[in-house]
């Protein structure tokens, strides 16, 4: 069978574009199938990139050669570092996007990419021979042969939209759903389920009373997402904060009898950490108000996203509820909020490469894996695209473990825990988060992107130079003694206790509240010049010095973790005959088919004693 296209990506959302671009850049002739070219990379929900832990994912995508960070740096209209009041490990960047410009910029890159073609069509069937994908069938272009395919269909598979008691087919509002693909995958043995997500109404900006809402600006000295961004002077367009009232909650309560969420019409499981406003007033009945963020969807937009008011209530209830919120008394709705149910494929059916265990060459990425969020989708799309290319080239697969990246945590959580609700990335999910900061993603991962041919020599060398500079700076701080006459004036200026004899600069820096900026004058000129060449590098030096003990402890933990991860489990192992482990463990291990002892140990229902028995068996 002739392959006009070696790899086919189905779906042009945030997972699909990263998958298609990375596959094409790895010299694979790639086809992207999307319903509508102008909808590629559309921000169907909030007009923002990043956020808590999500910003880490975006930085890692960038370090591996993806597009999301570079494009938001160009099209963002406000940048802010979240969690500044907490430890550095959980600082996370977030940017408001000009959603129109973001999509247009991605579309331009997709359309101009060598080895990448785009067609408008709907995939309806996966063709399999000898347990391997051989073609994708479409409505308009018939059967298209391929060696690999990546399904990144988002919320479009049998999508069902709910607004009050009305429901209708759709992948997004005013966009049709995709029918046939789920059924095709079910027939070849891949199991599916139903999930639910939602979005808030969009209102006219000129109907907001800005005297009653609080403006929220971004950082005065913002940090870009991409370590490849060299010129960065973004706009700082404000968002606004208001809040629901007791009256709002009373209006919404009275409408619950017409809520598809509470009437039983919606059966899919929704995201725990992004509940609808009606879910909030029920679950948190003791609260009299909830924050509402008014976010412009693009520069000079007359369309505002009402973040915090996700809902599927009837339109009349939505409007009355909005008009009871300070500043929104005269609000006019442009687009109503709605809920959407869609098909997904429980992720225990995937390898850590995101290839399905059942069908060779078939990959799943994005919301079809049971995730939520643009960032999670893009990260999965990137990994799937890389592995599809390596699969075609018959090269060693690519994966990241929990100790290397938030992307590794994301995929490991999906394949070992297989959440039955939309998965959202959190910093608390990463046990090695002190080492997996957003600000060192390039130093952690760019060598992998460079080996894959996705990071050029210039930026690879930049990451190496930064790493070497940090090491030299730490060596200087740990080996340089400062005398009282030189340091005491600085200490007094910082309201710090003075010293009476020589002290290492490293000891001074370890004082709580003391910043490295006060010590930079002690550095040799050449080293100081290298530090100042890279924005934020002084902060990274300070973190590595102040948290040295914790960092070394995590490195030791990672060594133990790596030993378990290196113990492979044969894919053909028959768990039903292993009587030394519990029945529940046998059932779970048979269902999840873990690739390593480490993965097996993280499957709910598999105990430490089960793991011990399994390790003894493998050693035999």
Descriptive notes:
The protein has 620 residues and is an alpha+beta fold. Among the domains are: 202-339, Elongation Factor Tu (Ef-tu), domain 3, CATH 2.40.30; 457-553, tRNA uridine 5-carboxymethylaminomethyl modification enzyme MnmG/GidA (Arc Repressor Mutant, subunit A), CATH 1.10.10; 567-619, GidA associated domain, C-terminal subdomain (DNA polymerase, domain 1). 36% of the residues lie in helices and 17% in strands. The chain has 21 helices and 23 strands. A six-stranded antiparallel sheet has the order 15-16-17-18-14-19, with no helix packed on it. A five-stranded parallel sheet has the order 6-2-1-10-21, covered by helices on one side. A four-stranded antiparallel sheet has the order 12-11-20-13, with no helix packed on it. Helix 3 crosses helix 4. The longest helix is centred in the last third of the chain and has 23 residues, at 457-479.
CATH class designation of one domain = Mainly Beta
Please tell me what the overall shape is: globular
Task: Tell me which CATH architecture of one domain applies here.
Answer: Beta Barrel
Strand order in space, largest sheet: 15-16-17-18-14-19
Give the helix tally: 21
Quick one: how many beta strands? 23
Mean of the pLDDT scores?
A: 94
Structural class: alpha+beta
Measured as a percent range, the helix fraction is 25-40%
Distance between the termini: 44 Å
Low-confidence stretches are: none
Question: Any idea what the radius of gyration is?
Answer: 26 Å
What name does CATH use for the topology of one domain?
Elongation Factor Tu (Ef-tu), domain 3
Largest sheet: 6 strands, antiparallel
**Strand residue content:** 15-25%
